[in-house]
Specification:
620 residues, 4-stranded antiparallel beta sheet, 11% strand
């Protein structure tokens, strides 16, 4: 192999993304990292290199996002140049964002410079950057050692990739200690507390109340869009989190739906119908929203506004916290009340949404020397083909998102990794497509596993992301993988998780439907828990006894009239067919997981119902 194989990466990534309070934070931080990789790839390409992974798409229509990793070939070692270029790109990004924000703040030049200096202290060394390559001498020595140890004559590309990965892993495993002294103070020597978003650094030494008021004054004068809207009351950000919050100034993409939008996707769809049926009322509403948002002109459509702006309770809370000197919020509340009271539009009422995280199973094995999955030698041609397949997978996943619907938004889809948010009507249909598409693009031996969390819109987003990560790890722990784990987190309650192989997702969807259509009574959940509790201390799994108890319970809880109305089935036939599916689950799972199936399914069903209520009668 004449050229040197290089591997570049940077970190932290998970912490940068997961320390998010809003979906816009999550999206923009993810997109920011992707943009850094994309721009670096363009620089690397100009250095007379050949990029193997990921695929650089010139028209921007390939990968939905790029990962924080680049594999390429070069004539000589260019690691230092690549690291230097990355740092320059990162500096250009945060300098642009700081300049855009500070130019809109009505404070003195000295105060702006102080903020800029402290922010740069947080930002300039935030990312740890790594680039390693393997020269011909290292290649020769490692190839000889592999031959002695493993008895095989490997292709030079495979040996170089394996050794470079090992070097990079050793470098990343070193614990870097990079102290910096943040001695900035404000308000006569007051030291900042921790950043309210990440808690990892001190917040910028600035009077945040004054800063927010200054932004509002600036907006009134220049009639620009309210950027103070991006700072909530009580928020105090460090330099890194400030850049994430206002990243749209660099990315030129300013919108991403809120959790309120996602949870109330059906309400946003109903806004379309309302706008067509009641044009005069819609026009008045847009005019009021324009004033509230401080925009020059109203947006083209009502559904382009955040669903939270149509929630009267949220507007009243904002008025209480921020005041309403010009009566704009009062007028908006009055108009919305008239619309809702006259039943021209239903209020946004959904509170729960889903986060879906997935990635490929055993991805390291696909590029390992002794792969049992790959079924062919690891050569450059294979790696290039594999990269294109991953790019096609990401493109296909991104295409599932529709501008016409609001219930699914892809935050990230790069390589084998996917991060998406969805409402409770869309999330399972999306999750169900992940594994088949991955197999189609990568190969029949390939599979993905996914973690899904159902959380309340008021829950801390970083907490929900962490729980989604735990769910993904649980799915990854299933033997043979190709699995999913769904965790629901009731407001004020603890997480409950159901896990299974992908082939059981249809059983989960069916169970949700039975609860949603009240074919099975809600109290079935407590019956299943009682049955599971009877055998909690048992070392054996008495499947037949459990099935007999389930049969008796279903005879009491299945509503024959609802069953006939919705499925057109006889009660006895339905119960036996359902028990056969439950039996298959018990063969690979335990009773606690069976109880979790019913609990999580009922939870989702109740949140989907238009009118939440506990069913009463014989089948409860």
């Amino acid at each position: 192999m004449n050229k040197l194989l290089h591997i570049f990466t940077f970190s932290p990534v998970q912490g940068f993304i997961s320390n998010s309070r809003r979906l816009s934070d999550l999206y923009h931080s993810s997109l920011l990292l992707s943009t850094l990789t994309e721009n670096l790839m363009k620089v690397i390409k100009d250095l007379n290199t050949e990029i193997i992974y990921p695929v650089l798409v010139e028209d921007g229509q390939g990968l939905a996002n790029y990962p924080n990793r680049v594999v390429f070939l070069a004539d000589g070692c260019i690691c230092e140049d690549v690291v230097k270029n990355f740092r320059e790109l990162w500096e250009g990004v945060y300098e642009t964002i700081l300049r855009e924000v500070l130019d809109r703040v009505g404070i003195s030049k000295e105060e702006k410079e102080k903020i800029r200096e402290q922010a740069k202290l947080h930002l300039e060394n935030y990312f740890r950057v790594y680039c390693e390559c393997t020269n011909s001498e290292e290649l020769k020595k490692w190839k000889e050692k592999l031959k002695q140890k493993l008895g095989e004559d490997y292709d030079d590309y495979a040996v170089a990739y394996d050794w470079t990965e090992r070097k990079l892993g050793a470098l990343k495993s070193k614990k870097h200690y990079e102290p910096f002294v943040d001695a900035y103070t404000y308000n006569g020597g007051k030291h900042p507390d921790g950043c309210t978003l990440c808690g990892e650094r001190a917040h910028l030494a600035v009077d945040w109340k004054k800063l927010k008021e200054s932004l509002q004054e600036d907006e009134r004068k220049d009639h620009i869009r309210r950027i103070s809207h991006y700072l909530k009351e009580g928020e105090r950000l460090c330099g890194v989190c400030l850049v994430k919050r206002f990243a749209f100034y660099c990315l030129k993409r300013q919108t991403f739906p809120s959790v309120h939008d996602i949870a109330n996707a059906k309400f946003k769809e109903e806004l379309k119908d309302f706008e067509q049926r009641h044009k005069d009322r819609a026009s008045e509403l847009k005019s009021l929203l324009k004033k509230y948002m401080g925009e020059k002109k109203p947006r083209d459509h009502l559904w382009e506004y955040n669903a939270e702006l149509f929630d009267i309770k949220e507007l009243e809370r904002t008025k209480m916290e921020e005041g309403d000197p010009e009566g704009v919020i009062n007028n908006l509340i009055r108009e919305l009340r008239q619309i809702y009271d006259n039943k021209l539009l239903s209020e946004p009422s959904k509170n729960y949404f889903a986060i879906i995280i997935s990635d490929g199973d055993s991805m390291g094995d696909w590029l390992g020397l002794n792969s049992k999955i790959r079924k062919e030698k690891l050569e450059r041609a294979f790696h290039e083909k594999f990269s294109k397949a991953l790019s096609n997978y990401a493109r296909e996943i991104k295409s599932l998102e529709s501008n016409e619907k609001f219930g699914l938004k892809i935050v990230y889809a790069g390589g084998d990794d996917v991060l998406a948010v969805a409402d409770l009507r869309e999330f399972l249909d999306f999750a169900e497509k992940l594994n088949p598409i991955f197999k189609e693009k990568i190969g029949e031996n390939a599979s993905v596993s996914a973690g899904i969390v159902i959380g309340h819109q008021k829950d801390n987003l970083a907490y929900l992301l962490n729980e989604a990560g735990k769910a993904e790890k649980k799915a990854k722990s299933v033997e043979g993988k190709s699995a999913f784990c769904i965790t629901v987190i009731p407001r004020g309650g603890g997480p409950v998780s159901f896990w299974a192989k992908w082939e059981f997702l249809s059983l989960f969807k069916d169970t949700i439907e039975y609860f949603e259509k009240e074919i099975i009574g809600d109290r079935t959940v407590y019956d299943i828990r009682d049955i599971a509790g009877k055998f909690e201390a048992s070392k054996e799994k008495p499947t037949e006894i459990v099935l007999a108890l389930l049969r008796g319970m279903l005879k009491r809880r299945v509503d024959e009239n609802k069953l006939e109305e919705h499925l057109g089935k006889k009660k006895r036939v339905f119960i036996e067919e359902y028990l056969q599916e439950l039996k298959k689950l018990l063969e690979i799972s335990d009773l606690e997981n069976l109880a979790s199936l019913f609990y999580t399914a009922r939870f989702i069903a109740k949140e989907r119902r238009e009118k939440k209520h506990e069913t009463v009668g014989a089948n409860t």
